[in-house]
Amino acid sequence: MTPESGDLPVSPPDWDGGWFTAARRSASPNFGPRPEGARIDLIVIHSISLPPGVYGGPEVEQLFTNQLDWDAHPYFQQIRGMEVSAHFFIRRDGELVQFVDADARAWHAGSSCWRGRSNCNDDSIGIELEGLEGGPFTSAQYDGLARLCTSLGLRYPIAHIAGHEHIAPGRKQDPGSGFDWTRLRQSLGWAHACFPNDTPPATHAVT
Question: Which of 54, 123, 141, 200 is the most exposed place for a label (fewest CB within 10 A)?
Fold first, then answer.
């Protein structure tokens, strides 16, 4: 279950400060301090692939670490100069990469609002899934996401989990209709109130 109130729980052994020891560390320069008194109680799920629909390459990691060659693909001109990050990235094969200390503020949500609070970067953890918005995700990604969320719920007072599409409706559509919220709820065993209301089951994961 997610913590509901009180002080932050004692850091479990799979954390080194705000770094998850099961993740490969690839530090991003795109982060900052959280506001004083911020309560880290929201997980935001995203999807990303660079170029769109292409998987397995180094481009997402290069984007989040400001090393992407903007001239390497025509699509990159649309995002040229962008400085963004997420705390975590889960590849199609389940590999977990961490870019930003979870105690710090990553730049993943943009203009956003959820549970009556704006600026979701201030008090959320951003998790990117390698995938195309609206498309399916892999079983390895769901398994890795469930393990990560479980550990985040032990370290932080997580009470909400939502997609980028929920916190920035009309502006963002990820992770989209291919993401199976029912599967995630069942894996975590968290209360239904932790999740968005309009999250029907999706198609089965790809293998």
Answer: 200
